[in-house]
Amino acid sequence: MSKVAYLGPKGTFSEEAAQKFFEDKSTEWFMFESIQDVLEAVSNEEVDKCIVPIENSIAGNIHMTVDGLLLYNLNIEADLIFTVSLHLIGNTESDIGDIDTVISIAPAINQCRQYIKSHAFKVEYTDSTAKAALFIKESNILRKAAIASKTVAQEYGLKILQSEVQDNTINHTRFIVVSKNSTTDIEQKKTMMLITPNNEFPGVLSSILNIFSSLAINLSWIESRPTGKKLGTYRFFIETEAARSDQSMEKAIKIIQTFGHEVHILGSYATTIL
């Protein structure tokens, strides 16, 4: 039986995604209060795996996950695409005209920026959508509402004041399944790597990307993060649509290393659409 962690409390999108992805597997669940706590649980071997959000089609990359991968030196063994619908949720006695403040996790707030601005709502942040809903239930404050899922509204007996409040009706979040140790016994169609240039010079990223282009390797994701050593120095997350074992990938890695850049493979995996 695998021990799997995700962002709680009960009713988060992470919980929904985890239960759908692992539904055919024997699993013991563990909930944590923040994405960093979830990743740290894997690093400390409190659990075998975790599932965390890394990217949203509206709000973009989720940096707390990206930085956590760096901090804890973890491996990606799968990614999954999950459809997200966000709703304005209040107490049963609340009316939408009463609301002046919305509460949620930062990525959910970012997915609803236009809606929030159009209503001139104030914003407060929590560690998860479900934690926001739980606060609404326990505080019984009628002028505040959570931005969260229909599932969590049902879970806590709350009222949906307005449905589908995200800025785009087509809203997907990408989650990754993370473990401490790399695995090779899974289907591999994509590879995530971290490239740290040996020095900064004009066009360093372009020179790296040209290597993939010349080998006809398509890239599906690029993210730059500070090295933490000197202002203006960066390392790059690059996801390719090629398995680690492909000859073209082997060649690309060797060429990049020949230029003196550090290459760290975070995982090779396949995408699941939930």
From TrEMBL:
One MF annotation (Gene Ontology) recorded for this entry: prephenate dehydratase activity
Keywords (A to Z) from UniProt: Amino-acid biosynthesis, Aromatic amino acid biosynthesis, Lyase, Phenylalanine biosynthesis
Transmembrane segments: none
Gene Ontology BP annotations: L-phenylalanine biosynthetic process
Top-level enzyme category: lyase
Residue span, ACT domain: 193-270
Catalytic reaction list: prephenate + H(+) = 3-phenylpyruvate + CO2 + H2O
EC number: 4.2.1.51
Domain (Prephenate dehydratase) ranges: 3-180
GO CC, alphabetical: cytoplasm
Residue runs in coiled coils: none
Pathway(s) it belongs to: Amino-acid biosynthesis; L-phenylalanine biosynthesis; phenylpyruvate from prephenate: step 1/1
Family annotation (NCBIfam families): PRK11898.1
Protein name: Prephenate dehydratase
Organism field: Paenibacillus ginsengarvi
